[in-house]
């Protein structure tokens, strides 16, 4: 039955971040998970009698955490819970369930693209009633609670079977275990022309979807293979594993190397794609043609009207500040507004709720739309396939025609991972201190037109998010941006984003790192990266 357990305040998530991400070893400490879950519940007034959604990406510690959270939800007076069978739900599927069934919110167990396993990472995200990540008012309230918490509620229920769909009663709460794919699959069929995509597959168009042993395996297998009849084996690494098979479930050119190499080889299928741990990111690679996430957002915005859900056009678009300006050109051509937001999906969710935008995305391989309030990996891949099914062109043809029409934004992100937190913070602080000097500075062939620390004013609720990254905007249209990651669990990660614009089609097939080399060198010298961090090169280039 319901038990009250005494506990002590603890260090929860940092204010301003939308989830708690820590090593599994931290989460396994007595009361740690319980404290955070109780802090979430305590911060949500009126949760008694409501519905809660729960699922995760299947990583190590997922099963234990699901058991604990179900017992705590029952003890905290929730009326009903929807839990994905096997404890699985992708982030976008959880967002959809919250919205569709009117839940007060949902708990998603994932550390996204971070590695899993006993020595890997675990995480909890809390999404609110609109299906999106908790806004700062809520995360601040949760944080405040973690500083004073002194008890949590839990039931003594023995192990709860959640392997198969079904309904049970648990200490006054109705627990519904549901197929994690069904509702989401139905939504995708409403948005896209599944007949056209099935025709494309029937014509011999070949796809490889790398699920990276993470949560999208069951989703992609159900939709691509069972519904759309792509040949069996189209989805690889399809079974979610607690340690993702020992790899990082991060769909970038480092961790999805095998897929990249296949796509650049003579054996390449027509379309290669991948998603991350919790299914909200996407990577798209055509035969011989890598698509940067920033370009992907721009191409999807320019072509979305070819899919049924977006036939009547886009209300507006949004990109995170570090994302390349490629989509801005499309918005201009479409005559719609483009919003520039800080990194993180909660800012998009506010614009989506207000109906100001239909499509949005981030350079970190996240793209999404008004259909949910999270980025959605499989959705982006299906939109690409719907567009190809209508245009009947290869990815390379579509991307090159796009550059021809709008110009090309050469773009790269250099990550310096696992550096010490103190010098990383000093590096950013020092850039902030020098903004006045940088403003108008002439550096080689480039002049900085504008230097600032990005500050966002939400047009819907007027809230302000300051210190969102140092921007150097050059006269040529080039940009260099510096910010520190908010999602790592080892030291600090410095992200440097470098971009330049090229209108001339004769210069559209050049090597990105070569084109950007002078700017990359500037980015290193302006911030004194080597002197401050000891790093002579980034650990990940995307
Ligand atoms: C990273 C990405 C950011 C993304 C966030 C969550 O954050 O850069 O664009 O929104 O991860 O993605 P940061 O602070 O490390 O740069 V996921 O797939 O964890 O939900
Ligand atoms: Co993710």
Overview of this structure, please?
Helix content is 34%, strand content 26%. The protein is of the alpha/beta class and 542 residues long. It is globular and about 70 Å long. The protein starts with a strand and ends with a strand. The protein is built from 18 helices and 27 strands. α2 (32-43) crosses α3, α2 packs across α5 (136-146) and α7 (194-202) packs across α13. A 7-stranded mixed sheet has the order 2-6-5-3-4-9-8, sandwiched between helices. The mean pLDDT is 95. Residues 112-113, 276-278, 280-281 line the site of cobalt (II) ion.
What structural keywords apply?
alpha/beta, 18 helices, binds alpha-D-glucose-1-phosphate-6-vanadate, 542 residues, binds cobalt (II) ion
Poorly predicted tracts of residues: none
Q: Work out the number of β strands.
A: 27
How are strands sequenced across the largest beta sheet? 2-6-5-3-4-9-8
Number of helices: 18
What class do helices, strands and sheet pairing give? alpha/beta
Overall morphology:
globular
The residue fraction in helices comes out at: 25-40%
Query: Mind summarizing the main beta sheet?
Result: 7 strands, mixed
**Which strand-content bin applies to the residues?**
25-35%
Task: Please state the average pLDDT score.
Answer: 95
Distance, first to last CA:
51 Å
List all distinct small molecules, including ions and cofactors, that are bound in this structure.
Answer: alpha-D-glucose-1-phosphate-6-vanadate, cobalt (II) ion
